[in-house]
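Q: What would this chain look like folded?
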Amino acid sequence: IMLHSTLALSLLLLAVTSNLAMAIKKEKRALQTLSRGWGDEITWVQTYEEGLYQAKKSNKPLMVIHHLEDCQYCQALKKAFAENEEIQEMAKNNFVMLNLMHETTDKNLSPDGQYVPRIMFVDPSLTVRADITGRYSNRLYTYEPQDIPFLIENMKKALRLIQTEL
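A: My prediction, written as structure tokens:
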């Protein structure tokens, strides 16, 4: 009887640990979906509020990407963004990163309307940087795939501003 209950206990333990391992694996995968294809190596915050908190705490600028799943311009930009090593490296190391598929209540994040894709920077003093814009006067914060070098310059500008202003 002793052998039987030890065996049963071992099997139970085995079942619990393998379920736990699967749950942990699933958890990891669920976290990765926060990237939504913009870069799996990047640590993404879940909400704008969390982004602001992390920016202040880490003294890094927050980069907010507004996009929608069924927007072809967003998809094209996402692909270019995810494939660019310099952007991925900077995003991973120097920025707090957030990609949103819904609008925030912060009106400062839609100064010229609620369109996608748009990318905005918020500095660690929690100021939305209206001075870091893209190339298009009708949609100030939009970028197209061919604007990736311009976006890289704007990311560097956001980092410089922190050193000089804050």
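The domain at 48-159 is CATH 3.40.30.10 (Glutaredoxin).
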